[in-house]
Amino acid sequence: MQSLPLISVAGLNSEDPAVRAETARQLGVACREIGFFYAVDHGIPAEVMAGAFANAKRVFELPLETKQDMSIKKSPHNRGYVAMADEKLNPEAGADMKEAFNIGTDFPADHPDVLAGKPFRGVNFWPPIDGWREAMLGYFDGCLNLGRLIHKGFAIDLGLPEDFFVSHLDSPIATLRMLRYPASAGQIDREDGGAGAHTDYGNVTLLATDKVAGLQVLTRQGQWIDAPHVEGAFVCNIGDCLMRWSNDTYVSTPHRVRPPEQERYSIAFFLEVNPDSIVDPRDVVPSEAPKYEPITCAEYLAARLNATYEHRVEPS
Ligand SMILES: O=C(O)CCC(=O)C(=O)O
Ligand SMILES: [Fe+2]
């Protein structure tokens, strides 16, 4: 049985170009073959990760009414609370047995982009919990920096200038999503009852998991394999936007969450690029005939989210 590769991403920070190149090579193999890898030596302290899980738990413990006051249905910018069974990541399979809470890049209400109503430039909902905002924004920033570092590796592996993605990542669309799956093994007979089989939409996802099993990844050979918890590691995967940008050089791979034996928490950080960045395969793989037209990151993401959430589609 295949397993996901483990990569020490600290090598991308090395002063030695040979170490950076070797780390990027490992990353490139993973992104071309399975589209998933574990990132270790990533620099986010264990206590920061533990704190994020403690805070995620607190938000789900709030009364339902308080959570519904922060409903994602009230945000055009993909922020807030998603109630149990309100989402279908695989619309053909049925509702996901999970609840979620999203925060995005934090903008003040008077930021020019917010006032102008730019897509994905909105304010966050903040749960009424002391210290929550500061702790989660600290974790968000840690993930963002890790995502930038991993993009340096992508650039090296793809034969681009090391800083190719830097200008695309100065104010990116990014979503930190806390997830809670109730114990539901034996109650739902769908293998993907926690989260329906899907690919992620953005460039890269950095997922922190607790010790409860559930995540599975589809190999190129069509086999579902477990992606077990690895202490201190992020499960990272390529999203559809980077697959498109790289002209399918990197693959976004279907994954799902089985109904867990025990209550399960995970925290996903979905990183795209700046809303106005042009995602054009000609820029990333100039030697190949492009399979996709150029599109802005915001346009691409909006189209994908509109297909997932009924509430985002304007009633006709
Ligand atoms: O909870 C997990 O382990 C995976 C969640 C996931 O794939 C997603 O939210 O996109
Ligand atoms: Fe996912």
From TrEMBL:
<dbReference type="Pfam" id="PF14226">
    <property type="entry name" value="DIOX_N"/>
</dbReference>
<keyword id="KW-0408">Iron</keyword>
<protein>
    <recommendedName>
        <fullName>2-oxoglutarate-dependent ethylene/succinate-forming enzyme</fullName>
        <ecNumber>1.13.12.19</ecNumber>
        <ecNumber>1.14.20.7</ecNumber>
    </recommendedName>
</protein>
<comment type="similarity">
    <text>Belongs to the iron/ascorbate-dependent oxidoreductase family.</text>
</comment>
<dbReference type="InterPro" id="IPR044861">
    <property type="entry name" value="IPNS-like_FE2OG_OXY"/>
</dbReference>
<feature type="domain" description="Fe2OG dioxygenase">
    <location>
        <begin position="172"/>
        <end position="273"/>
    </location>
</feature>
<dbReference type="Pfam" id="PF03171">
    <property type="entry name" value="2OG-FeII_Oxy"/>
</dbReference>
<dbReference type="InterPro" id="IPR005123">
    <property type="entry name" value="Oxoglu/Fe-dep_dioxygenase_dom"/>
</dbReference>
<dbReference type="InterPro" id="IPR027443">
    <property type="entry name" value="IPNS-like_sf"/>
</dbReference>
<keyword id="KW-0479">Metal-binding</keyword>
<comment type="pathway">
    <text>Alkene biosynthesis; ethylene biosynthesis via 2-oxoglutarate.</text>
</comment>
<dbReference type="GO" id="GO:0102276">
    <property type="term" value="F:2-oxoglutarate oxygenase/decarboxylase (ethylene-forming) activity"/>
</dbReference>
<dbReference type="InterPro" id="IPR050231">
    <property type="entry name" value="Iron_ascorbate_oxido_reductase"/>
</dbReference>
<comment type="subunit">
    <text>Monomer.</text>
</comment>
<dbReference type="GO" id="GO:0046872">
    <property type="term" value="F:metal ion binding"/>
</dbReference>
<dbReference type="GO" id="GO:0009693">
    <property type="term" value="P:ethylene biosynthetic process"/>
</dbReference>
<dbReference type="InterPro" id="IPR026992">
    <property type="entry name" value="DIOX_N"/>
</dbReference>
<keyword id="KW-0560">Oxidoreductase</keyword>
<keyword id="KW-0266">Ethylene biosynthesis</keyword>
